[in-house]
Amino acid sequence: MNHESYLRAVGLPDLADVPTDAAQRGASLVARPPHATASAETVEERYVYPVPEEGEDGACGVGLADEKYNLAPICGLEYDRERLRDHPNTARLVALHETVQRVAEETNVDWVGVYRRATNPDGEEVLVKEAYVGDHSRAEFPLTEAFAERSNNSTVGLTGDAVLVNDVEDHDGPYYECDGRVESEFCCPILAGDDVIGIVDAEAHEPGFFTEERVLTIAGACAGLADSDLLTPPRVEA
């Protein structure tokens, strides 16, 4: 799908004819999985990360949870740092991390992450955070209508339509707060045909941050991710 068609597919038709190469530049930010063997430290960095405590209603609490989140189970793997060093899923996660780093550097966002649509070990359909740059945040967003009433991520994951929040204070739609400093947000789906296979969420500490150039860059990265295999865990045992 070309960039103009992709922008229309994710509900951004007004940007399809903007005279800029930002979408193309965004797509070029998508990294390729490395061929080199990862270190055990890299395996831990890519699979395991801290998450905030969650309240009874699923809201972000104060402080970090005692237990870190581990991506191995939701990728269908047993977590073994040595055995995962040569695993293609590790290379995939390394490439996703490099991609979000490039997007952060290109757009100067304060936070950006890529989430994959998956079924967690409890059998629930969720968006799981597989790579991010910025402060710690929630690992999974339920893909349910109930949670979508309070979360842009879940809403975009269910509808396939991008959401742009220019000013959190004036926003009257779904919004899940995990960092009180966030003033604006752009959330864009990653589409494979008509299916949402993931999202990219980006946040900034100032209102009106997401200019056309930044939105197009992030949407372009989503299109590039859709054309890659980075949202498809390899079916190989560890």
Automatic annotation (TrEMBL):
Pfam families: GAF
InterPro entries (alphabetical): GAF (IPR003018), GAF-like_dom_sf (IPR029016)
The GAF domain, residue ranges: 95-215
Listed name of the protein: GAF domain-containing protein
Organism from which the protein derives: Halobacterium litoreum
